[in-house]
Structure formats: C-alpha cells, structure tokens
Design goal:
This protein has about 700 residues and is of the alpha/beta class. It is about 50% helix and about 15% strand.
Length: about 700
C-alpha cells in the first residue's frame, strides 16, 4: 500500500535491513523481526523535525482508491527520525490498537505521548510536559537518555530507561519499568495514586486508571491531569515518602512485625494514603498485637477504624474484599461490649456475612466466634451446635472445649460436659475454673471421690470460692459426715469473713437437709451481715420454727409476711426472729420502727411489752399491753406476755405496776442487763475438735 509523501514531508522509504545497519538499530525488536520478514521497510526523515501532532496510525496516509490499481508494496514498519523530534501536541494513534514504531536518534519532546503495540526508541532525552503513557504487553520503549514527564504511565507496557528517571510513576499495579543502574536494572514502582493526579474523565469509577479513556482524552485534546497536579499544588515528595512507607509496610507485614506495621500505617494515613484500605490494614495490625493482651484502648482504636471503613452495613464490595475485617470487628465487639445488644446484632451480621464470603475451611472458625457470642450472652442451648462445629475443625482448642463444657453443664448435661472439661484441663490448664466444673459433673454423675479431689484442687487455687466449699459440704453430707461438713463451713467463714454470702449459703444447705439446729447459727450470722435481705430473714424464721420450740410471735410475723409479701413487714419478722433467738436488745429497735408504721399491730405491741419487762420498765410494759388488749381483747399471745415476767423468768405484773413512778426509772446500761441465752452449735450437740 503506497504512502503519500505529504504525510511525512521529506521522508523516503528504505528497507528496514538497510536502516538497521546504517543507523545502528541492531538492539531493537525490528531487527529481530527481519529474520522472518526481510521485506520490512521504514520511512526515514533526516534532520530535526518539528510538527504540531504526530499520528502513528499504520494506514493513516494511504490513498484508498488509487491503492486498488497499484501493486502491493512491502509493509511499512515504522518511522526513523535522524535527528531530534518536537511535537507540539501529542504522539499517538487514536484510531487503531497499534501504530507505526518510532525511532528517534536525537531527543524527543512532546506534550503527551500515548502509544500501544509499537516500539519506541529514543537515543537522546525524552521530555514530555504532561503524560507519557504506554499500554499492552506488545511493543515497548527503550529510552537511552534522561526521561522527564509530569506523569509516567505503564499499563503493562515494557519500558527501559537508560538515563535518569525524573518522572513520577502512576500506581496501577501493572507498571513494567526498568531503570539501568550500573550493571543492574532496578524496577521503578508506581508511587502516585490515580485518583490523586488523573482527571476524573480518565478514571474508571473513582480511582481506577483506564487506558481507553486516557487515549480518547489525548486524542480530543482534553486534560488528562488534575489542575492541582499540573500547577504543582500536589506534594510529590509526600507521595514518594508514602510509597517508601508502603514498601516498608509490605516488608514488615510479610515478617509479621505488626507493632512496627502499625506505626508505619499511622504515618501513611497522615500522608494521605487511601483511608479505607490503610485503615483496614492498621486495624488488622492493632488487632493482631492487642487481641491477646486485651488492651481496651488499642482495641477501641481498631474498632473505630473498622467502623469507619466498613460502616454498620458493609456493601458487597467491602465484604468480598475484606471478609476477615468483619470477623475482627465481631471479635473486638465481644471483648469490649459483650453485654451490649446493639454490639451483638452488629457482630452477628458481620459473622453471617463472613460465613457466606469466606472459604469453607474458614467457617468453623466463624462458628466458634458465633458460639462464643451466644455463650457470653448465656444462650447456652443455642451456642452448643456452633461450639461443636468449631471443635470439629480444631479439636485441640482447649478454650472452646472449656466453653462447651460450661454450656453443657449449665444445661444439666453433665455426662456430655465431662469429657470436654477433661480435654480443657489437658489443653488449656490456665483455665483452672474447669477443676470446679469437672468436680460438679462428677458429683452429679455419682463419683464423689473424684469430685472431692477436683474440688479440693480448685480450692487450693481459689480458697475464697464459697460455691466450691458448698459443693464439698454437699459431698460430705451425702456421705453422712455432718460434723465434717459443718467444720468445713465454719473454717471457710472464719478464714474469709469478707464473704458475706457464705453463711446464708451454708445455712440454707443445712436447712434443706433438715438440720435446722445447725442451720440456725449460720443463718443468724447471715442476717447480722445482711439484715435487710428478706430471703435470709425468712429462711431463718422457718428454721427456728422447725426446731420444735414454741414461738407464737414468730408464727404471727411469718404469717403476716406471707399474707402481705409487699407490705413491708420485714422489720417485724426480724424482731420476732431475734426474740426467738433470745436477743431482745436486737429486736427492740425493729419493733419500735414497725409500730411507728403499724400502731395497730397488737402482737407486736405485746412483744415490745415483753422486752420492756426484761428491761425492768413495767410501767411502759403496762401501757403497751393495755393498748394491745384494747386492739385484740383476749388474745392468747398478749395474755401470755402479761402473765410472764420475761421469756425465762416470772414477773409479778401487778407488783411492778404498783411501784412508785416506774416510768421515770432509767433503763439499765447494756452491761447491767440480764444475760440472755443464744442458739449455738453447742446447743445443737456439735463439738469442734
């Protein structure tokens, strides 16, 4: 096909073989093509050339009509400029995928260069005022001198720079640029993010470089770079520092040095690295460093980064790109906000999304995290299948064995829990609470000897655990060792007086076993520690009633509490309990308080009258009894008090009332009051060795 001389004025056609030898083009791809295609030809322009635009379309100057009447001529491979070339606008081939190869034996200067599928050789320097871009693996550029440009783009296009590279390289993940450095060639990596320097019209989406769009923009003369970048307002030094940091980050992450990676990632974010991607990497580094240590401050920072990058409802792209980040957020929420309902819902969504996006082999780990969430929220029945699935993939996970053992034990499935408790103790001995769990399982399954051994082992490590002591007491009571059980309870109470709940716990245990005489002293001590605990006071009242003694006032108070449980009668019941325990001094204040609120309580008035008699204040007693008789005439309990001088001593009530001015007589001091008997373990027949 003939070419018009007007396309390249002054050019002449020569055989490529002659040009290779004449202009020393032996190290070009064209020279290698000659072996299979010796008829290749070139167009040659001698001298410096200046043109407005250079169109390298392979058939751009053919006369289509006349060509059909002429014989075919050898294919033209390219254009040789024997001198320097200056192009005011662009070197390009907009209408075809590839163009004529270009060989410039001097310098090349242009505003833009956009080429693909051809060979470019520049013997001198290459100076491009805006963009020098090459695309595709076919062809390539050999640039022997210095290369300067506002931006250098290699979209899988091979480039070899023999001089100095004075152009920032676009970061697109496909750059193939080598720079000769002495005897070696070093790789020039991308350092400029597309979204930071390229005009939006040449981007695919928000931040992906598009070769077809850039090629079209160059052909139309539209801007390819942002105004800030063209005017120098974009800080390239910061970008270069950012690329250096990112290279170091990749290295330290590959070496699993996550603490150092965290420091570098923070610097990268400060220099303008992509916030979402860098934030996820930083969150991952923080998580790996601090997940085991439990640092709440560090994990809170990681959670904030994950929330910023993922949002409450991550879109599909974020889920597919970072499924591991979803699991990390769920795990951090479990550590920081395990009792928060919103945190649970967020973690459950994240785990569910991760389960459908991650490989099948990862799903057991996801199930383990979901099971751990359910276990933490005491949803034991629901967590068991998830924990079993996790253990099917990781049978040596001692922590998961421990959670499953606890869940099954809480569900009263001791036979299933026992082997997992044993596995947990073998694989995760740090979880020493498992000695207690296994001991309780063995106790229920009828193995008291092994249960006692495990519980004793646990108590060696946690001597202040009243639940474990209670379990030992039960074993001793089941074996008929009542004295030993009581000795165990008393030793614990003496050694750990700070354990407020122990006396009540042990007292109720003896109460349920029918040992009311032994339960009373323990429940009494519990009431002294927690006088406003309604359950303790009622348990003690019932135990006192079951001892077989006549406590009419106590019966009355118990019935009052049972008939009107919300009527605030606890003070009355507590007072009658203390009277039954022969401790009127402790009962006095409660009765006075109760009668201020319920002045018509006749039997409470009689009980307080009995205390006044014991205090040798018969005048006060007479008034109280008179009030009581007026409210409830002929009441048996009131008349009984009137006939007695006290609970253990007869008092002549008429003689007492005839005494001069009895009401003015001061109450005796505490030390002068007659002693009262107290319920004790000795009264119950127990002797400590």
């Amino acid at each position: 096909m003939a070419y018009r001389p007007a396309r390249f004025p002054g050019s002449r056609r020569v055989l490529a073989a002659d040009a290779v030898a004449r202009y020393d083009l032996r190290r070009t791809m064209m020279a290698r093509l000659l072996a299979s295609n010796p008829a290749l030809s070139l167009l040659v322009l001698v001298g410096d050339v200046e043109m407005e635009e250079l169109d390298l379309e392979p058939h751009g100057g053919a006369e289509q009509v006349s060509a059909s009447f002429t014989r075919p001529e050898p294919e033209v491979h390219g254009l040789v400029i024997v001198g320097s070339l200056q192009v005011d606008r662009a070197v390009q081939h907009p209408r075809s995928a590839s163009g004529l190869s270009l060989y410039v034996l001097g310098d090349l200067k242009a505003r833009n260069v956009a080429i693909s599928g051809l060979e470019l050789v520049v013997r001198g320097d290459l100076r491009v005022s805006e963009v020098f871009a090459g695309a595709g693996p076919s062809g390539g550029a050999r640039l022997d001198g210095d290369v300067s440009a506002k931006l250098l783009v290699s979209d899988a296009f091979p480039m070899l720079v023999g001089g100095g590279l004075k152009a920032p390289v676009l970061e697109n993940g496909r750059a193939r640029i080598g720079v000769v450095d002495g005897p070696t060639v070093r790789e020039a990596r991308g350092e400029v993010p597309p979204a930071l320097v390229l005009d939006q019209t040449v981007l695919e989406g928000s931040d992906e470089f598009s070769w077809p769009r850039l090629k079209a923009a160059v052909a139309a003369g539209r801007p390819t770079l942002t105004a800030d970048y063209l005017t120098g307002r974009t800080n390239l030094e910061s970008m270069r520092e950012l690329r250096r940091l990112e290279a170091e980050i990749d290295t330290v992450l590959a070496e699993h040095r996550y603490a150092r990676a965290g420091e570098l990632l923070r610097k990268a974010r400060a220099l303008g690295a992509p916030r979402a991607e860098t934030g996820l990497k930083l969150a991952d580094a923080i998580y790996r460093v601090h997940h085991g240590t439990g640092s709440r401050e560090a994990l809170a920072e990681a959670l904030e980064l994950l929330d910023e990058a993922l949002g409450p409802k991550p879109d599909a792209a974020a889920v597919m790109a970072h499924p591991q980040a979803l699991l990390q957020r769920a795990a951090i929420l479990l550590q920081l906000r395990e009792h928060d309902d919103e945190a649970f819902e967020q973690a459950w969504r994240d785990c569910s999304l991760a389960a459908v996006t991650m490989p099948a082999q990862e799903r057991a780990g996801i199930a383990g995290l979901m099971g751990q969430w359910l276990f933490t929220r005491h949803r034991y029945d629901e967590c068991v299948p998830y924990l079993r699935q996790a253990l099917s993939a990781e049978p040596q996970d001692g922590a998961q064995h421990g959670r499953l053992a606890r869940a099954l034990w809480m569900l009263d499935r001791e036979a299933e829990a026992l082997p997992h408790a044993t596995q947990s103790l073998e694989l995760n001995p740090a979880d020493n609470r498992m000695w207690y769990i296994r001991g309780k399982c063995q106790q229920v399954l009828g193995d008291p000897d092994d249960a006692r051994l495990d519980l004793s082992t646990y108590l060696d490590m946690h001597p202040d655990d009243d639940l474990a002591v209670e379990a030992l007491i039960v074993i001793e009571l089941d074996a008929g060792q009542t004295d030993q059980a009581l000795e165990t309870a008393l030793q614990f109470i003496e050694q750990h007086p700070e354990s407020d709940g122990a006396p009540a716990r042990f007292g109720r245990l003896l109460h349920l076993r029918g040992r009311y005489d032994l339960a009373v002293p323990l429940l009494r001590r519990a009431m002294q520690v927690q006088p406003h605990d309604n359950t303790i006071v009622r348990d003690l009242a019932v135990a006192l009633n079951e001892t077989g003694h006549d406590h009419t006032g106590l019966d009355t108070a118990l019935r009052r509490v049972e008939i009107d449980p919300g009527g605030d009668h606890l003070a009355y019941l507590r007072a009658e309990v203390n009277l039954a325990l022969s401790d009127p001094n402790a009962a006095e204040g409660d009765l006075e308080e109760y009668l201020r609120r319920f002045p018509e309580a006749a039997r409470a008035l009689a009980s307080l009258a009995g205390i006044r008699l014991l205090q040798l204040r018969p005048g006060d007693a007479e008034k109280l009894l008179a009030q009581a008789r007026e409210i409830a005439p002929d009441d048996y309990y009131i008349e009984t008090v009137a006939e007695k001088a006290g609970f253990t001593k007869q008092i002549d009530l008429s003689a007492a009332t005839a005494a001069p001015a009895p009401a003015a007589e001061p109450a005796p001091a505490e030390a002068e009051r007659p002693p009262v008997t107290q319920y004790s373990f000795r009264d119950a027949g127990f002797r400590r060795s």
